[in-house]
Amino acid sequence: MVFYKSISLLSRLRSRAIQQPGLSTSVRWLQIQTSSDVDLHSQLKELIPEQQDRLKKLKSEHGKVHLGNITVDMVLGGMRGMTGLLWETSLLDPEEGIRFRGLSIPECQKLLPAVKPGGEPLPEGLLWLLLTGKVPTKEQVNSLSKDLRSRATVPDHVYKTIDALPVTSHPMTQFTTGVMALQVQSEFQKAYEKGIHKSKYWEPAYEDSLSLIAQVPIVASYVYRRMYKNGEIIPMDDSLDYGGNFAHMLGFEDPSMLELMRLYVTIHSDHEGGNVSAHTGHLVASALSDPYLSFAAALNGLAGPLHGLANQEVLLWIKLVVDECGENVSKENLKDYVWKTLNSGKVVPGFGHGVLRKTDPRYTCQREFALKHLPDDPLFKLVSHLYEVVPPILLELGKVKNPWPNVDAHSGVLLNHYGLTEARYYTVLFGVSRAIGICAQLIWDRALGLPLERPKSVTMEWIESYCKKAASA
């Protein structure tokens, strides 16, 4: 097992914990992961009181501590860089990238259980990590996989609701519609209507969230087969894990494609709480909307071209490069095409990030996957050339804080290699992945009793007046 083969990594993590405070909590969890209990619900029930007490202590001892100054630029710039949201499951560092409960992507790849030694991490293992802060054993992951499969039943009315839409509707429209149709089975809504005590909110939220996570691959694969494969549906395989089953239901059996889907779902699952989809899910859930309603809202944010739709735009742009310049385009011709794109008032999709200031680690791990499994793929070679060509051009412009590639710059090329060539569908894959991170945090939102989110808004007149007073003071 990957977990038990990572003793040397654990030693390195322990030695780094003193120097990196952000890792200390994760290392503590890794050191005490000795429970043989394979029931995720039971483990959460033990953890929640401890974290509730921790939150109360934070409020009582540090509630008046200032976390920073708010500038007019932040207010006018989409709240960029404004600290104002609690998100336990992951943290994004501008230089280091994402950490899931303190663990980097390479560390997750080494520590989380896999189907085979050296394989990609199982998404179920990441879900366990996000919910508990603990790296699970293979037995615990197998138990969670079994639980998710037992929940993976989609009512007929969901399919009928999707079928009411034109088959040409965007895949995200059909997917979100399917998630909304699942909402009628919400345990949280039923429990709230019966008058459940707020201290118990997390339990029906847990039931809804795990059921939702289990069901979205089925809904997503139905949309894919309906749109692109004449409606020929492939049933779930009870012998497969979450990521492997998703690839199977889409119609892919290549073991490397199953591995890619495990990696894809894992690295796209969570990216702290400030991005549009994560924040939307948290915001809507703060009104005590159930997980289905909250996640459907998050999907609508993910469908925007400045967020999840970007992975679609990257592959379409790369194919435009090939159409005009050929697969074996020289770096000079590639530079010319990049400048042509920029001079036409467009962006080069897949480069830049709102927070990161270095190459996205999610890009790096996908590149490593490509080097291992498809080193001679022409589009992969083109992506590698773009990595050399685009950043210097963006730096030359002088307006870009981060010229480096992000996660979207690579995923489409990998999917395309294995035959999933329908770029319009790619954001649905992102949506399936994001269910894990959003739902994990949503359970903790209810467990910690986080309140209705209600920031203060102001007008331009108010800002002008405030700044004049501040200048004259």
Walk me through what this model shows.
The chain is mainly alpha-helical. It is 61% helix and 2% strand. A 3-stranded antiparallel β-sheet has the order 1-2-3. β2 (97-100) and β3 (103-104) form a beta hairpin. Mean pLDDT is 89; it is low at 1-29.
Question: Topology of this structure?
Answer:
Blueprint: H1 7-17, H2 21-32, H3 40-62, H4 72-76, E1 90-93, E2 97-100, E3 103-104, H5 105-111, H6 123-132, H7 138-151, H8 156-163, H9 171-182, H10 187-194, H11 202-228, H12 242-250, H13 255-267, H14 276-285, H15 291-302, H16 310-325, H17 331-343, H18 361-373, H19 378-397, H20 408-417, H21 426-447, H22 460-472
Antiparallel strand pairs: 1-2, 2-3
Helix content: 55-70%
Enumerate the spans where pLDDT stays under 50 for 5 or more consecutive residues: 1-29
Determine the N-to-C terminus distance: 65 Å
Strand count, sense and barrel status of the largest sheet are: 3 strands, antiparallel
> Helical segment tally?
22
- Assign an overall shape: globular
Q: Give the DSSP E fraction (strand runs of 2 or more residues).
A: under 5%
Strand order of the largest sheet: 1-2-3
